[in-house]
């Protein structure tokens, strides 16, 4: 089956964002996993209007925020562990 130009554009955009995540220091498999973990929600919120570099930086920012441990002594730290969800 032949891909439509829109599907091709989305695939190329995704590949470019994954490549940018690799340049930000994520290994290949981890870059893909991080991308797919955040892609659907971010696409829904921001669309595909961001350039790939900015989209990758936002994904990186969200991933770092999710991985950051709550520090009760830091007044700027907010516990959000109960808000995160895991997609299957």
UniProtKB/TrEMBL annotation:
Top-level taxonomic group: Bacteria
Protein name per the record: DUF3791 domain-containing protein
Region annotated Disordered, chain positions: 66-88
Species annotation: Marinicrinis lubricantis
């Amino acid at each position: 089956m032949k891909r439509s130009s829109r599907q091709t554009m989305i695939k190329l955009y995704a590949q470019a964002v994954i490549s940018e995540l690799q340049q930000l220091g994520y290994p290949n498999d981890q870059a893909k996993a991080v991308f797919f973990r955040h892609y659907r929600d971010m696409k829904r919120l921001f669309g595909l209007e961001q350039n790939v570099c900015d989209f990758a930086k936002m994904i990186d920012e969200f991933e770092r925020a999710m991985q950051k441990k709550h520090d009760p002594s830091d007044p700027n730290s907010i516990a959000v562990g109960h808000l995160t969800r895991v997609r299957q």
